[in-house]
């Protein structure tokens, strides 16, 4: 039976830099729903030369480096290999740029310390393409993507959380980047007539095939590691939704003729190489139905490609975003336990298949819904999702609320 995501939902990504008094609407919940994707099988898209092509474009040998544009890389010598932090069972909340301002930080440290939470996912590059800190990256300085930072001393901010015993994750929004697309139009997704493409919400994206964009992203990840973060989290590591429609409208800069899923894999391999000598873990957010879908759903996300090239994988499994009848549930929004349980059963099975083949699979660390969408979500609704995780022996999770207004009693 096909599982179809909720039709007609608003754009999924959080708009995370509203002020507290503006109280962001959680109808714009995040990269955490695809409105028009159905689950089904698709023809195999790999070719005999896939590995060679991916190896070529993700290579960092000296010849390739000289051929690539370096204007967006930061001239910082790579440090010697350093031991990564001890792995912990992460239970964290998301913090937007408003929440990490000096006057607000202590509130969230106290919130975490007063609960069974122990981690914070901190916006470093947000949904607008703006950096939340004062950067030394040439391209960021050139286009001003680090202007108006929430913090001018990122190391001090990170250390403040770490001094409180809180695990720190740097959230980096990858290919949804209206600021870079606007200010470096060569990097933008283009319509067939050469104009910059925009999604239904009017948001510009960068072309995921652009290796200059890859370099910019990994430079930000390197800078976050140098600032003390324990982990880099890639969000929007995908193509825009409504993939078939978008493909009819745009022309990608894709000289290596990679499919979308092959390109996401190539980016992850590039990231692995660029972060090899940095003491950080890497995680990726994926659509909730990536746990179950057998194709890339038109956005380039295939579980097996991603789970084998990151340390943690975070499906955005929000019950309110599933269509009636999903997993045999008449009203998924009012069945948070059942939806989370089935999604995790599928995710674990995908990992098991990988492990049976001798491959190392990412630790599953899903996002939990703590926001109102189709109905008011209570502490019981949040706890039911967490209980489903525990019943599947999944000990890690992240909590999403776009406005960072959390149901504290759910985490006691």
Describe the structure.
With 412 residues, this protein is of the alpha/beta class. The strands form two sheets. Strands 9-8-7-5-3-2-1-11-10 form a nine-stranded parallel sheet. A two-stranded antiparallel sheet has the order 4-6. Helix 11 links the parallel strand 8 and strand 9. Helix 1 crosses helix 9, helix 7 runs parallel beside helix 9 and helix 11 packs parallel to helix 12. The longest helix has 21 residues. It is globular and about 50 Å long. 50% of the residues are buried. The N terminus is likely disordered.
Instruction: Sum up the overall morphology in one term.
Output: globular
Structural class: alpha/beta
The CA-CA distance between the termini, in Å, is 38 Å
Strand order, main sheet: write it out. Answer: 9-8-7-5-3-2-1-11-10
Assign a percent range to the helix content: 25-40%
Uncertain ranges? 1-50, 52-56, 58-75
Let me know the largest β-sheet.
Answer: 9 strands, parallel
SSE string, helices as H and strands as E: HHEHEHHEHEHEHEHEHEHEEHE
Fraction of residues in β-strands: 5-15%
Q: What is the residue-mean pLDDT, rounded to a whole number? A: 86
- Rg, alpha carbons: 20 Å
In total, the number of strands is 11
Number of alpha- plus pi-helical segments? 12
